[in-house]
Specification:
24% of the residues lie in helices and 25% in strands. The protein is an alpha/beta fold. The protein has a seven-stranded mixed β-sheet.
Length: 171
């Protein structure tokens, strides 16, 4: 039987003052900069998104990144415990520990800030295992943010050492 997780993984935290993490980091301008950064990272690891490539935005929140990515032609879907997008982008309500997608569905998975243990109550090991499960062999996972304690799941190879973000390839 699959473990049951609470629907809302957020903790109450004074870490960001009166603003939420999302208010601090997610604006349309920031989404465009994040896309530019993503394209540079993918180029540096020789990973090309093709027209039929599927992208998963893990922790998609308000959907700003997805909207910007769609404008650039990406086939992207988001997943968030509390999707707050305007409804124009495909966004699924689910916990990361229980992704509602078939094995090997996505070519690329992205996340920002989903491992911040000061903000969220989550099982990091299970989250990473689920991200690995839905990635195709040869797929790329790019993540960033504070608080990640769990190491990469089996079957991942780190492509870029160190830094504030991590890039793994599913072998």
């Amino acid at each position: 039987m699959q473990e049951k997780f609470p629907s809302d993984p957020r903790k109450r935290s004074a870490k960001y003052g009166s603003e939420t993490w999302e208010e601090v980091t997610k604006t349309e301008e920031r989404a465009e900069k994040d896309l530019d950064f993503l394209e540079g990272v993918l180029k540096s690891v020789n990973f090309e998104l093709k027209e039929d490539s599927k992208v998963l935005d893990v922790g998609s929140g308000k959907g700003l990144f997805m909207e910007a990515a769609k404008k650039r032609g990406m086939n992207i879907v988001g997943v968030d415990a509390r999707p707050r997008g305007p409804g124009t982008e495909p966004q699924v309500a689910a916990r990361i520990e229980q992704l509602p997608f078939a094995d090997a569905t996505f070519d690329l998975a992205l996340s920002t800030g989903i491992f911040d243990k000061d903000v969220y109550l989550q099982d990091q090991k299970t989250m990473l295992e689920e991200i690995a499960r839905v990635l195709k062999p040869g797929g790329i996972y790019i993540g960033s943010g504070a608080g990640r304690e769990a190491g990469p799941p089996k079957g991942f190879r780190k492509l870029i050492p160190g830094g504030a973000f991590w890039v793994y390839k599913k072998t």
